[in-house]
Specification:
The chain has 279 residues and is an alpha+beta fold. It folds into two domains: 88 residues, Phosphorylase Kinase, domain 1; 184 residues, Aminoglycoside 3'-phosphotransferase, Chain: A, domain 2. The protein is built from ten helices and ten strands. The strands form three sheets. Strands 1-2-3-5-4 form a five-stranded antiparallel sheet, sandwiched between helices. Strand 4 and strand 5 form a beta hairpin. The radius of gyration is 19 Å and the shape is globular.
Length: 279
């Protein structure tokens, strides 16, 4: 079945007419399209089979978006059908950031403050847990991955998460491409969000954008109000964990789909980096 035929069959399951105008992203996990939904400029995401192997909680994602939307830093969810792998959100005007954009003082401060607000949210009905994601990765890879790297990553995770009392709502994928600058900074793609230790989000920002020491300090100050309150030794361990989690994610993509040359190189680099760290 062609991608256009598959898209048409998915759209046919939506009770209200959806008029797709442009495809803005098409990767191994999902395709993303600009569309009109009930007269509202919107974004349609349609899952591909690989999404089902990543352990994503699509129903939980939609519920979370509903809960946090009034805070103004995320898209408004309009329609969801997890069984069909469909999500529609209101289109947000703005420009996607680059890592260079994120390195500017204003952006780092704004992201730090928004992230602090996210981590202070109290959402008792949100039950998606990061540990479930990690256990899913472990189950998927136990017979396929480098056993020593898998064990080392899982052991690190277990050592860091013996106590979940301080877990909060985390985005878990805070890369520049998921940030849009409109009237204020907006955060997209909440599909990996879960209850997790706040240091995972901090580590994701620090490890994915090659921030200098002064930029990192600026970001952490904006986040906490007092950088000295952050355990930098523990944060460094969470930074290491982000590399393992990314590697496991790439390994699952390789297992079930065609991995791109860029992703393949990324995976090899992570394997080498983590193997050297082991020694």
């Amino acid at each position: 079945m062609s991608s256009m035929t598959d898209l048409a069959s998915k759209i046919a399951t939506i009770p209200t007419a959806v008029l797709v105008s442009k495809t803005v992203k098409d990767d191994s996990i999902s395709s993303v399209h600009l569309c009109d939904y009930q007269g509202i400029p919107s974004v349609l995401r349609v899952d591909k089979p690989l999404a089902g192997y990543l352990g994503l909680d699509r129903a939980g994602e939609f519920d979370l978006l509903h809960c946090i939307q009034p805070h103004g830093f995320s898209p408004e969810p309009l329609y969801s059908d997890p069984g069909e792998g469909i999500l529609i959100c209101r289109f947000l005007e703005g420009d996607a950031l680059t890592p260079t954009d994120l390195g500017t003082r204003g952006k780092l401060v704004e992201l730090g403050k928004i992230l602090g607000s996210i981590h202070r949210l109290h959402l008792p009905d949100f039950k998606t847990r990061f540990v479930n994601q990690i256990r899913h990765y472990e189950k998927e890879l136990k017979n396929d991955a480098d056993g020593s790297l898998l064990k080392r990553g899982i052991d690190l995770f277990d050592s860091l998460t013996a106590n979940e009392d301080d877990w909060v709502v985390c985005h878990n994928d805070l890369i520049a491409a998921n940030l849009v600058q409109g009237e204020r900074l907006l955060i997209l793609d909440w599909e990996y969000a879960s209850l997790n230790h706040p240091y995972f989000d901090l580590a994701t920002v620090l490890e994915n954008h090659a921030l200098t020491e002064s930029q990192s300090e600026l970001f952490l100050d904006a986040y906490s109000g007092e950088r000295q309150s952050i355990d930098l030794v523990k944060l460094d361990e969470w930074c290491q964990l982000t590399h393992y989690v990314t590697l496991f994610w790439l390994m699952i993509i390789k297992k079930y789909a065609t991995i791109s040359e860029k992703e393949k190189a990324w995976m090899v680099n992570l394997e080498n980096q983590l193997s050297q760290a082991r020694g």
